[in-house]
From TrEMBL:
This is Uncharacterized protein. Keywords: DNA-binding, Nucleus, Repeat, Transcription, Transcription regulation. InterPro entries: Homeodomain-like_sf, Myb_dom, Myb_TF_plants, SANT/Myb. Residues 9-61, 62-112 form the Myb-like domain. It is found in: Nucleus. It comes from the Eukaryota. SMART domains: SANT. Residues 9-65, 66-116 form the HTH myb-type domain. It comes from Brachypodium distachyon. Gene3D superfamilies: Homeodomain-like. The gene is LOC100821658. The lineage of its organism: Eukaryota, Viridiplantae, Streptophyta, Embryophyta, Tracheophyta. Its main location: nucleus. GO terms for biological process: response to auxin. The keyword DNA-binding applies.
Amino acid sequence: MGRPPCCDKVGVKKGPWTPEEDIILVSYIQEHGPGNWRSVPINTGLMRCSKSCRLRWTNYLRPGIRRGNFSSHEEAIIVHLQSLLGNRWAAIASYLPQRTDNDIKNYWNTHLKKKLKKQQAMGAIFAPVPMPPTAPTFSSAAAQPEAAAYSGLLHHHQHDAIIGGASASFSSTVVDVKAAAWRNDTSYRRRSPFAEATPCGGDSSSSAASYASSMDNISRLLNGFMKSSPPPPAAAAHDVKPAIIVEEVEDPFLSFDQHFSGATDLAFAGVPPPPLPALLTGGVHASYGEETTRQQQQAPLCSIEKWLLDEAVEQVADLMDDLSDGCCSLPLLY
DNA sequence: AACAAGCGCAACCGCCTGGTT
DNA sequence: AAACCAGGCGGTTGCGCTTGT
């Protein structure tokens, strides 16, 4: 039996959202918070599919979204993460809290892919991907998730190296098997760190007040459209913000590096690692929430990820330099 | 000025997963 | 255990805008 449509197609409006619809949706979410999307069209009278409401919210109306040009640092992050994760836009987006997966996906498809292809066509000289001097071992049961994370990341790393013509010299059956398992594990979708950590991800514990207090998008919308909207609560307006705002740091790319480097090495010191690859679960991801230090917000980053990411970040930095210089030494691509 | 081609992006579609009944 | 449901994801499409001729 086929899966029924998410909503009754009859009478459902499609196409671009009007400001009126946006306001209705935003007002509703201000009051009730996101989530339970099924009830949104019912309770608001919007002639929209619940999915459409959710998408409109997450991709456009949600507070904290940054629109417009991507910085070169954001590009670098995307390129790097894409090489590691593939087209897992939601996972990639979790590292750029101000960008939506849709935005990143669009940007990749319309800009980055072409840009990289172009560079490749210009006679790219593939540089060997440096491999780690030694591969860590995973002996304890507690380290298995980390091992899996390592395997998955390693596989990408190897894959990139192979594609790039480098001679990846350390492969193993174990690594490949685990990497394959990792690639096939789509459960990360349910564990999107951003989705879980932000009010927009359906966290039912988030109060409506917290949304109202942080909706810069909403206030813009209301101010722009209605011209008579009262300002959002002053105190709250800056209380809830993405903890990491790329353009606010002196060197976003450095920040990215530090971001990944800021964790401890507890994972290899007998302390159980995060239950899932932190790269996917958001252990290294900070998002909306109360003001805390980075360390407080972040689960410890396992050593192997730190190692991989630190190294890869350097590569991507070089890559982006190359891209801007007009030469290329891409270790990956399609 | 008019038209065509290309581009960018919002939105839709179909599939998948986990939770609930 | 099976069916159903809601939410989430990636791929794709369609339309409006911009640029080139």
